[in-house]
Amino acid sequence: MPLNADRVGHSYPPYRFEVGREHVRAYAAVTGVADDRYHDDAPDVDAEGLAVPPAYVACIAGARAWTRVMDDPELAAHDRVMHGGQELDFSAPVRVGDTLVCTPRIVDLRSLRGMELLTVEVACTRTDGTPVVTSSSRLVFVPEAGP
Amino acid sequence: MSGLQPGDPLPQRSVTIDQATLIRYAGVSGDFNPLHWDQPFAATFSPTGGVIAHGMLSMGLLSALLTDWLGDAGRVRSMSCQFRAACPVGAEVTLGGEVASVDDDEGTATLAIWVRLDDGSKVIDQRTSRAVVTR
């Protein structure tokens, strides 16, 4: 069953994301950041205000936005899905200690070779509304094989 | 690192993507799509017929390379990656890039960035994947 194109333009409720030192440390470790400031346990290393690796935005704009999209009964998404492409546009760096307000929105849905391409944008701002980063994810939904 | 010039290369890295890597990445990112850990599920529609790596892990490896090379992750203005070849569990990937162009007015450099499998397949294709950074 196809996804519901009437959901293009729909925004989901915003959520708050706090950029924590230990979470950034875990992300830096699994992606292979070598810079000691992302790892060092020495008590004199102060990481407050350290800019996060850019693709850390996947943690900010990923799972919690994803839950809103996948749990939307009107969209009728399903779990046969892959990630086709990703854009990150920074108005300002994301830093350890930031609190961001993130609003997911469906911006496009199109068909390509029997698959459906859904574009989900997540706009992340400071709590006063100042833009910080926008994430745009292209998700590829693969239909069930025919009979 | 000021004064980036067209053709300047990024250092290359090679990384082996095993199942433990994907489990760690899922845990950190919160992306628990079973495509990345459940073989029977993945077999039903994965392009390789099996578990594949998160696209955002490949982008994350490039993000780590940029963070170390630039010395300040805050210099990254944008990143755009198209995920092409799927990366199977156990693959060794190599990643890198180079300065494709510079913009003197903006004070930025555009980098073409890539991730490849050892057979040359493009997981992230440098023809369509870019990072814009301050010079």
Descriptive notes:
The complex is a heterodimer of chains A (147) and B (135). With 147 residues, chain A is α+β, with helices and mostly antiparallel strands. Chain A has a single domain, classed as Thiol Ester Dehydrase, Chain A (Roll). Chain A has three helices and five strands, in the order E-H-H-H-E-E-E-E. Chain A has helices spanning 21-31, 57-61, 63-70, and strands spanning 15-18, 81-90, 99-112, 115-125, 131-141. In chain A, strands 1-3-4-5-2 form a five-stranded antiparallel β-sheet. In chain A, strand 3 (99-112) and strand 4 form a beta hairpin. Chain B has helices at residues 19-29, 39-43, 55-70; strands spanning 13-17, 76-82, 91-103, 108-117, 122-124, 130-134. Chain B has a domain at 53-134: Hotdog Thioesterase (Thiol Ester Dehydrase, Chain A). With 135 residues, chain B is an alpha+beta fold. Chain B has three helices and six strands. The mean pLDDT of chain B is 96. Classes of the chains: A alpha+beta (147), B alpha+beta (135). Chain A binds chain B through residues 23, 26-28, 30-35, 38, 50-56, 58-59, 62-64, 66, 79-90, 93, 95, 142, and chain B through 13, 15, 21, 24-25, 28-35, 44-47, 52, 54-57, 59-68, 71-74, 76-83, 86, 131. Strand 2 of chain A pairs antiparallel with strand 2 (76-82) of chain B.
List keywords for this structure.
heterodimer, A: 147 residues, alpha+beta, Thiol Ester Dehydrase, Chain A, five-stranded antiparallel sheet, 3 helices, 5 strands, 16% helix, B: 135 residues, six-stranded antiparallel sheet, 32% strand
